[in-house]
Amino acid sequence: MRITCLMLMTAVACPALAQSDTTFMPEGSRDIYVSATAALVQRAEGSSKMRLIVLPSASVQWSNGVFLEPGALGMQLSNDGNLRYGPVLDYGVKSQRNDEPDRGTRLDLQAGGFASYRPLHDLRLHGKLLYGGSDDHGGVQLNLGATWSMPIAQHQGISLSAGATVVDRAYMQSYFGINAEQARRTRRAIYDAGGGLKNIGVSVGWNIELTHKYSLGTGVSMRWLGDVPAASPLSESNSGYALHSTLTYHY
How far is the C-alpha of 61 from the C-alpha of 145, rounded, in Å? Predict the structure, then answer.
């Protein structure tokens, strides 16, 4: 999460104020954003159906390195401005299989670690290793990606991202496999989904600072399934897209 200009100015103007070694924020301070997002997304990965969702969210960075952002609670441990790493707990609504009807909300919790490195000013490499996403609360997934960003005008910028997700057999079977009981219920063939590449994706985003407090971000992303999930009888489409727009207020 970025450090605001106000905090940087405060740190420079008040040298007697202690500063955190990990976030370079004044000790005891916090940085808060609240947002509202509207997005058009796939009903389930591999589904040909789309759905519109509207979600409020909040992001908070504390000076001790703890952060809360949409879908994640973690702690930044590094004191290197170009390197970030630490433990993370991902949370959210559990993804649906493409063969199951809409049902009540189920909480999804996955624990692990994250790391990111900025080799160039406009380029950041990032990764996250998580455990707990499968039906038996096991399952491992590894997310790897890179994001390049640049300003295009005053108070405006664009970003380009690319990434891939690799999962183990337990995770893949939970969302793309079909066991004997599921085959009887859905009248589909049994499918043993082994581990491997789950998907690859690219996205482009545009952000504009509307005022000192408000910003608007809009983006589009494309995703393609790996060979194992693409071959599943559950997959109606090997590719999918998402559109989103987010209005953010910075305290």
Answer: 22
Containing structural domain, residue 107: 5-250
The β-bridge relationship of strands 66-69 and 50-62 is: antiparallel
| 3-class SS of residue 227 | helix
pTM above 0.70, yes or no: yes
pLDDT of residue 104: 56
Q: What is the CATH number of the domain that holds 75?
A: 2.40.160.40
Residue 56: how many CA atoms within 13 Å on its side-chain side?
2
How many domains in the chain?
1
From residue 23, give the alpha-carbon distance in Å to each of 20, 27, 192.
Answer: 6, 9, 45
pLDDT in tens, 94-112: 888 888 776 556 789 999 9
Q: Which long-range contacts (CB under 8 A, 24 or more apart) does 208-213 make?
A: 208/155, 208/156, 209/155, 209/156, 213/249, 213/250
pLDDT tens for 30-52 read: 999 999 999 999 988 999 899 99
Cβ neighbours around 183 below 10 Å, total: 14
